[in-house]
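Q: For a teaching session next week I want to show students how multiple molecules come together into a single three-dimensional assembly. I've collected the sequence lines for a complex. Could you give me the predicted C-alpha cells for the whole thing so I can convert them for display?
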Amino acid sequence: MLLFAPVAALGVGQAELLPAERAFELSAAARDGRTVAARFAIADGYYLYRDRMEFALADATLAAAPELPRGKVKDDPFFGRVEVLRGEVIVELRLAQDRGGETVRVVVTSQGCADAGVCYPAQRQTVALSLPKPGERPGPPVEAAPRRKSWFN
Amino acid sequence: MNAGPPTSKRVLRIGVVVLAAALALVLGLYLGQRHSGVGGGQDSRERASALLAIALPDVDGREQALGQWRGKVLVVNFWATWCAPCREEMPEFVRVQTEFGGAGLQFVGIAIDEVDKVRPFAAQIGVNYPLLIGGYGAMELSKSLGNRLLALPFTIIVNRAGEVAHTQLGPLRDAQLRSIVGRLL
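A: Of course. Below is the structure for the complete assembly, covering every listed component.
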C-alpha cells in the first residue's frame, strides 16, 4: 500500500510532465557559411519566456543581436508584462564573418514553464554545427547535446 | 538420461536459468526502487534526515540549520521569483503559517534564486516565515528528495516524528494543504 501512496501524493504528477530538454527541444541547422537557424520545438502545454532567451556563438561573433519572434503577452503581477512563446520558435543567427568549413557552437539559454503549474530553471544548451563551404549543401539539423547527467538517476 | 551425469548442455541450461533469475531479481529491485518514491518507513526517515541536516543562509546572510525546526510539522517549499506558480501559492502559505504557527507548524522557503530578487518579493507579499537562499545546489538536493524533473514549486512536508509525510511537485491547493497540515498537527 505504501508503495502507491507516494505516487498519489505527487501533485500535478511527475509522470505526465516532461523533463525540460523534452518540453523545449532545441536543434540548430546551418543555412550557409555565415547563417545558422536555432529552433525550439515547444511541447503542447509548455512555454518559454521570450526575455529569458539568449543566443550566442561560443567561437564566433554575431553580426547583430538576433531577432526573436513576438510572443503572447502575459501579465505577471511581479514582473509586469512578459511575453511567452509556444509551439515552434525559429531564430536566425547571422555571423559577423563567413566561417564556411568550420565548426561553430551555438549556445542557447532558455527558461520556461508548464501550464500544469511548474517552472524549470534556466538551462544552457550547446549545439555544435559544421558550416558549409561555398557551393556545399548545408548539413541536416543537429539536436542539442544531451545532458551529461541524467535526470532519471 | 535424467539420472546421468550433468552434460555440458545441462550445465549451460542451468546456467541460463540462474542468470535469468538473477536478472529478474535485479530488474525487480530496480523497478521496485523506482516506484517506491517518497513514502513511509525507513526511506521517508532517511530523506527527512538528509533535509534536516542542511544549513543555508537566510536573506540576511545568517546560516540557518533546518534541524532547528525538528519536532514541528515542517513545510519546506523550494521556489523562485522566476517561477510564477511558486509566487502564486505563497500568500496562502503566509496565511496558513499565521493560522497554525502557534500549533507547531513551520514553513521554510528555499529559494533557487538570488537574494536581491527574493527580498523585494518577500516584502511585497509579507512573508512571515524564513526564506533561505539555496542556489542550484539546493535544486540538486530537491532531486534527491524526489524532485526528479528538477522543476518548481516543489514542497516536502515533514511530520513531527521526522518523516516525510507528503511530497508535491506543482502548487499545493489550499484545501489540500489545510487537510494535510490538519492531519499532522
